[in-house]
């Protein structure tokens, strides 16, 4: 329902109509019409704000440990064990600790329900005496997986526009014939 004045305002200032997008609300306003409706209140609410980036959002756990005494030959085994325990990703990065000691920081990302399993894997596979855990917000592109004769390809889109294409490395490496990756991606460059 809309009044003629309201319709004129909307036609002048609105580019498109749809559900309320995610916005950083700066101001809200309410107004009540003078006509009394039986079925619903005659109220108008307006939001003024800046549109947020339209990514998919979730919250995951980041578990980390600083380690200075683990044999580097065991790093890959530790990462594999973390992935098997339910981590979404796991990695190491070099760091410098107190007293000039070279070390690594082991980081595992997982859903909160996997915390105990991932933490146990860290204690089982490394020499650390403790871990730190943080909830972190994550913005993600909309993902679509397509199968090709070369393996799975992941497409990442933002607000309906293709932003990234990624070949699943394990699929590609396992194939007997390895064409240039650019040939595989050629068909997806204009996809959306």
Plain-language structure description:
The chain has 192 residues and is of the alpha+beta class. It folds into 3 domains: 48 residues, no CATH class; 83 residues, Transcriptional regulatory protein pf0864 domain like (Alpha-Beta Plaits), CATH 3.30.70.1380; 48 residues, no CATH class. It is built from 5 helices and 9 strands, in the order αβββαββαββββαα. Helix 2 packs antiparallel against helix 3. The longest helix has 11 residues. The chain starts with a helix and ends in a 7-residue tail after the last helix. 11% of the residues are buried.
Describe the protein's topology.
Layout: H1 4-13, E1 23-32, E2 43-51, E3 56-67, H2 75-84, E4 89-96, E5 102-110, H3 115-125, E6 132-140, E7 142-148, E8 151-158, E9 161-167, H4 169-174, H5 181-185
Antiparallel strand pairs: 1-2, 3-5, 3-6, 4-5, 7-8, 8-9
Helix pairs in contact: 2-3
CATH class of the largest domain: Alpha Beta
**Topology, number of strands:** 9
Please indicate the count of domains.
3
Proportion of residues in extended strands: 35-45%
| CATH-defined topology of the largest domain | Alpha-Beta Plaits
Helical stretch count? 5
* Assigned CATH architecture of the largest domain: 2-Layer Sandwich
So what's the overall shape? elongated
Could you describe the largest sheet, including whether it forms a barrel? 4 strands, antiparallel
């Amino acid at each position: 329902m809309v009044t003629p004045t309201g319709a004129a305002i909307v036609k002048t200032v609105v580019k498109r109509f749809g559900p309320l997008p995610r916005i950083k609300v700066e101001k809200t306003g309410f107004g009540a019409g003078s006509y009394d409706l039986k079925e619903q209140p005659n109220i108008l609410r307006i939001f003024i704000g800046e549109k947020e980036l339209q990514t998919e959002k979730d919250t995951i756990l980041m578990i980390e440990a600083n380690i200075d005494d683990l044999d580097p030959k065991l790093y890959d085994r530790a990462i594999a064990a973390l992935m098997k325990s339910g981590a979404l990703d796991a990695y190491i990065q070099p760091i410098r600790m107190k007293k000039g000691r070279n070390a690594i920081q082991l980081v595992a990302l997982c859903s909160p329900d996997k915390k105990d399993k991932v933490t146990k894997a860290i204690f089982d596979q490394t020499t650390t005496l403790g871990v730190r855990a943080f909830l972190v917000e994550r913005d993600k592109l909309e993902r679509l997986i397509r199968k090709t004769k070369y393996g799975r390809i992941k497409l990442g889109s933002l607000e309906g526009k293709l932003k990234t294409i990624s070949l699943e490395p394990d699929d590609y490496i396992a194939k007997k014939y390895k064409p240039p990756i650019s040939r595989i991606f050629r068909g997806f460059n204009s996809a959306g």
